[in-house]
Amino acid sequence: MDATGETPRHVLTCGEVRTGLLPTRHCLDGRDAARLLALRTDEQVRVSERPNLHARSPDVLTGVDCRLPTANDAKIRAIGTVAARAVLTEGRVLQATAYFSAPAAGLDQRQPWGYYLVRPGVLVPLGRLPEQAVAAGFLARDRSAVPSGELGLGSIAEGLLGQLSRHPLLDHDVPFKSRRTRLRWAALPVQDSADASIERFTLDDDGLRTIELRLPQSTEPAAVAGLCEDLALHDWLLTTVVQKLDGIRMGAAEGAAVMNVVRPLVDHLLHLWMPSARVDRTLSPLWEVLETEPGFTRQWQTLVQRIRDQLTLQAIAAPAEASTAP
Amino acid sequence: MTEAVFRETSAQPRTESVPLSHLSLELGHLHMEDLREGPDRLRRHFEAVRPWIDAARAGVAALTGGRTLRLSTCFLIDDYFTRFSTPAELVPMLLSAAGEADLTIDYLARESGCAVTEDVHLAESVMRRLVESPPPGSNGFRPPVSRTGWLTNGQRTPPQRTSAAMTATSWKPPSETGAVRHSIHMDVELWDDADDHRTWSCPFLAAVWQLARLGLLRDNGRPVPKPAPWNGEGFPDDWDDLPPLLRLTPSAAPFTAYFTCTVLPTRFLPVEHAVRVILDQIHVDSAALGQITERSAREGIHVPVQIADRASYVFPPGL
Question: Which ipTM was obtained for this model?
Fold first, then answer.
């Protein structure tokens, strides 16, 4: 039962996570992480220290009344609130998520605003929701192609990142350059009490990732957001380390140049790999699917091994260079 | 799902519940100017209020399904915008004037307590819970109210351009979202800032006051404001030394309630309209709201889902 006294039944949950390096030189400790993410003064930031340092802001809401994207260009208007939250992992990787869930149908007319405020993070459609078409439309929309007046989850997440990046705790002197990634997800209910599944995980080359999920209807939207934040974090780690290693021509580059690239990765990223650390138990099997194919952890271990090999080579080369120096 | 074995309290906060009356009845809201007029002014106030108190009591008794009525009364003194006299002088005068009209003030509150109470910045917390009602077409790009300090119940008139080329642009009226045929547009100033000091507006503090009475305010899960007991021995010489919320009647029903009723002079009507506009756009703590929904359902009492509909008013003649 929720605050309205009803048991909510959602047929669609959608969200977008933006993941990037916290724009500051040193990682934040738990106390500063809580200061950064204090979006409210009356609600604590959730700080957890096991199995890694993880801080999560309270959800903040944005009211919307607009069209939802659809794959078949059907016009569907929805009203309600989009929830947004920020997560900081090990004081180093900052993520902002904007997400909503939607029931199968709503009343034919817009209700007083209070009706929507007691259903935080829910967008209520006018009439019936074509959930398949909305899920497909939502995943297919590229940022440049979002028609004006259509729901912009990405801009809500971006707005939250922008707000946080103005915090005086941050010095904007990043230890290394990296790109933000966007991960967009849509979850539809499973058919006939089947298990949760990942239908599709797509990597676009412009930093957009899309995931289509099938989940039991009882799954909390916040739990789905948690799973997708975890996937986005690990995908960002892989993407960033691959990009960095691609940037140096192994073997050809100078030792110092290699160290300049490798060292910040060791200092700031290598210890962050911890799949499924806080994912809801009912959803954690989905991680195992990705471990089999494409094999996230396998790729990560290979990358880590490459970095360690480079360090070993540098260590062997360094005395040699020192002895040949004039 | 089974309970998790490992728990970190900083990661899983809890929301405490509050005791609940059926009705929180406010016997009046006087400004310092009214109080300055002395005991006669207060006596006239309570005499004019008296019959309506009985009516409000009878009205809410019908909603309780035959259970013993739990009702508490309160009185709010404005010490935020102006200050006059001392609690030691003024409060006894107030209580005796109420007593003469056969009325009891169970809880006495100071308006400053709606801004800051027990080191908790209540008004600031509530401000951060404003979620503006989106006019049709809003898709997530809107300047938040925290930047402007103004809250509306609809859409404002677009800014007028004065350049010659734009003179052809016709004036567009403001509109109320969800208007019944014709708009009644309201734009409420929530605060002003001067010299690094923020002054909250009267309607905004009144909205905080309504939320406090409705048991919907929490500070990290802890109910605020908490009524302080009175030792029965008189009142301090400084308003700041008077607890923001004081329980004058030891056996009083809880301060917080399912419904509020406020008896006010008609000149406060615009303020209370503004309060409604504000309450309509506050996202209250879901856990606190859920506790009230669950408890009222168990008692068989229908509490409106919308917060603003839980507050009622009486504007009697002669106040």
Answer: 0.88
